[in-house]
Amino acid sequence: MSKLKSHRGASKRFRQRANGIKFRRATRNHILTKRTTKNKRQLRAIGAMKDCDLPMTQRLLHGS
Fold first, then answer.
1. What is the residue-level pLDDT of the chain in tens, covering all 64 positions?
2. Which of 13, 23, 11, 18 is nearest to 50 (CA)?
3. What angle do CA 31, 36, 41 make, to 5 degrees?
4. What is the pLDDT of residue 10?
């Protein structure tokens, strides 16, 4: 049986860490002038994947 490929889009967006999966917050690329300073500051934080989304994300990353 051949190896299964990981989902390339998911592998670019998520990173597996020892304590879960991390990702970058959305809407942080351009046209930030309409966003408040508080909102931009809060979006700086690295997101941690919720427990309900972990199984599907791990399946995408590991190709199983």
1. 788 899 999 999 999 999 899 999 999 999 999 999 999 999 999 999 999 999 999 999 998 7
2. 23
3. 95
4. 95
Strand-pairing partners, residue 20, are 17
Q: What is the DSSP letter of 59?
A: H
**Cα separation, 14 vs 26, whole angstroms:** 12
Q: Does the reported pTM lie above 0.85? A: no
CA distances (Å), origin 3, targets 27, 41, 54, 59, 61: 35, 41, 22, 14, 13
Distance CA 42, CA 52 (A): 23
Pairing of strands 14-17, 20-23: antiparallel
